[in-house]
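@channel sequence for tomorrow's demo:
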Amino acid sequence: MKERSAPRARRSTRRSAKAKTPGWLTPKRVLISGALIVIFVGGGTFTAYTAIQNESAPQGPPVSLDDMAKMFGGDPFGPDLQADMLKEQAAQALKADALAAERDHRKVLNPIKIVEEAPGGDGFAPQKLPPGTSNPTGNKALGKQMLDARGWSDQWGCLESLWTKESGWNERAMNTSSGAYGIPQSLPGSKMASAGGDWQTNAATQIEWGLGYIKARYGTPCGAWGHSQAKGWY
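structure tokens (generated this afternoon):
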């Protein structure tokens, strides 16, 4: 009986030794390893998926000059309280000078000067105007064509009178009081950049902007002319 019990004791000792020896894949290590795999593989998959989605997404239309002007310089046609106040002050100064001129028996001062250097602003540097750029007669003819293209042929009388009063149809014209510039007398002149980067020298760009401004603010050239007659500015 003693010989049979001895082997059982040895087998029991071997099982106890194996149970006490810890293996590498403990439950805790299994959990940690699984978490790391999810983070690296899952994160990489998400990054790749996002990149593919961004690459395959349809591209929107390019940003227009109008949109850029709205983002960086405000609405080029919208109400501008500061500009309107400057225009009002210039109109009042002109009225005061007219009264003084009548009293002193002299000519009324011309509120418009023809400059040799276009103003800067909003990232545009002042630009020396090349000789021969002013052509009021040609500018007026161009304005008539552009007005007709908008379907405003019946508004020509109002537009001709308005911009003759404002600038004499001269793309170099600057108001001595407010600093408004160009054929439509934009204040500041750099607002016309929404119609083209050559706003300082190009009569067509100035006219295009001016017609857009009139439509947005007054509806028609006759609406703008009526406001100018009542207030002295538009």
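heads up for whoever presents: Residues 9-22, 35-73 have pLDDT under 50 and may be disordered.
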